[in-house]
Amino acid sequence: MSLSVSRRLAAVTAFAVTAAGLYAAATPAALAAPPAATAAAPTPPDIPVANVKAHLAQLQTIATNNGGNRAHGKAGYKASVDYVKAKLDAAGFTTTLQTFTSSGATGYNLIADWPGGDPDSVLMTGSHLDSVNAGPGINDNGSGSAAILETALAVSRAGLKPTKHLRFGWWGAEELGMVGSKYYVNSLPAAEKSKISGYLNFDMIGSPNPGYFVYDDDPTIEQTFKTYFAGLSIPTEIETEGDGRSDHAPFKNAGIPVGGLFSGADYTKTAAQAQKWGGTSGQAFDRCYHASCDTSANINDTALDRNSDAIAYAVWTLGAATPVPPGPSFENTTDVAVPDSPAPAVTSPITVSGVPGNAPATTKVDVNIVHTYRGDLVIDLLAPDGTAYRLKDSGSDSADNVVTSYTVNASSEVANGVWKLQVRDVAAQDTGYINSWRITF
Ligand code: DTR
Ligand code: CA
Ligand code: ZN
Ligand code: ZN
After folding, report:
1. Which of 63, 100, 110, 307 is deepest in the core (most CB within 10 A)?
2. Where would one find the signal peptide in this protein (predicted)?
3. Does residue 1 belong to any structural domain of this protein?
4. Residue 151 in 3-state DSSP?
């Protein structure tokens, strides 16, 4: 790509003014490690409700493309599992697919472990991912599934190092009688059950005529949620539709402390409840419960947002999140032109030294690429031994530039050595350049 005059000047200026910087950029010394974080636990993040709704849109598309549902034993359920799993794998989680059989069909539980934390003290968060056969199940229970997925992704974005070990679960065949969660709990050896300090369940948290219900099982978990909503001046009620009606039941029956949130199903909102929560009295919390109309339109965004944020608050608080002193960071700011397709990939090297042991499961890669059609680009992280970690695939994305942070589970790689950012333009027209990139351990 021909450099515009301003870029040529900028390039020359950069070379003249920061020759040392360029030298440093080519073989950078570790950037000064920021001061260690204070002992206070980090503030739980706001969960962007737009991200949660984007997951719901994907689940809606999956149902639409697979006979209108995401039910156990149907293609739509397995496609839902594959979607969630891909997001978690890309975010550095260790995922496991557990299979079981129910009503003659294979069912799937998806378990995702966040590396680190005390293996003898596990905080688990779960939602059932299946719908009924009648419809796409966006509130029941895409809402819970999407909210805990986005919370897990927030854990990854934060590079959280909680005291407890965090585990997330997406259950199959809940609508057949909590079959997946029962199978998971019953398959756990007693020693593993005893390590679970608490199970948080989220099944229907975006009901269109919402209530704010808190499970009244474990008092500590219950109080955690009540504290959150009190901070928003939102009154809550105890969930009284029956303990046995969702996936927390098998955990509770195994003696594990449980809690959760619920925005209501087919029961009717009273006048008193409408007075404090808004919405329509005399109408069900979710008129599309177990119906074909449980689509993307069957969500109250405010309830979904508040409950998603409450989930993050509970995971951070109950997980006893501790500060994350950022590890050593290395950067290369040398511009590297990315030629238009067809052309070989280009690379930008960073020599890492002085970092003991292996890279962490939460190795962070910050990428800054200037380009006029980022969908042309395939981006990989190359470890010193040549192992490639795909950061970004090509696709129809006409937006400019890639300015993104990726989390890579590079825990099998020795940290010291020459890491490379590899970029290849795989579609004709449009060019750009690697502006800078950084790796943080
Ligand atoms: N049985 C759940 C919906 C449901 C009904 N009452 C509660 C109470 C707590 C959680 C969930 C529910 C379902 O259809 O998936
Ligand atoms: Ca939010
Ligand atoms: Zn249901
Ligand atoms: Zn449900």
Report:
1. 307
2. 1-32
3. no
4. helix
pLDDT of residue 261: 98
Alpha-carbon gap, residue 377 to 434, rounded angstroms: 11
Whether residue 9 is contained in a domain is answered as no
The answer, yes or no, to whether any atom of ligand 1 lies below 6 A from the CB of 204, is yes
User: Are residues 250 and 196 in contact, defined by beta-carbon separation less than 8 angstroms?
Assistant: no
What pLDDT is attached to residue 350? 98
User: Are 186 and 293 in a shared domain?
Assistant: yes
Q: How far is ligand 2, taken at its centre, from the CA of residue 206, in Å?
A: 13
- How many structural domains does the chain have? 2
Q: How far apart are CA 408 and CA 11, in angstroms?
A: 31
Catalytic-labelled residue, pool 150, 174, 175, 239: 174
Q: Is 214 in the pocket of ligand 1 (CB under 6 A)?
A: no
Give every residue of the chain whose pLDDT is below 70, as ranges.
1-41, 242, 321-326
**pLDDT for position 356:** 84
pTM over 0.85: no
In this predicted structure, what is the pLDDT of residue 263? 98
Last residue of a domain, one of 322, 340, 375: 322
- Residues 96, 59, single domain; the answer is yes
Our answer on whether the CB atom of 294 is closer than 6 Å to any ligand 1 atom is: no
Which residues make beta-bridge pairs with 114?
166
438: which strand partners? 331, 366
Kindly state whether residues 309 and 397 are assigned to the same domain: no
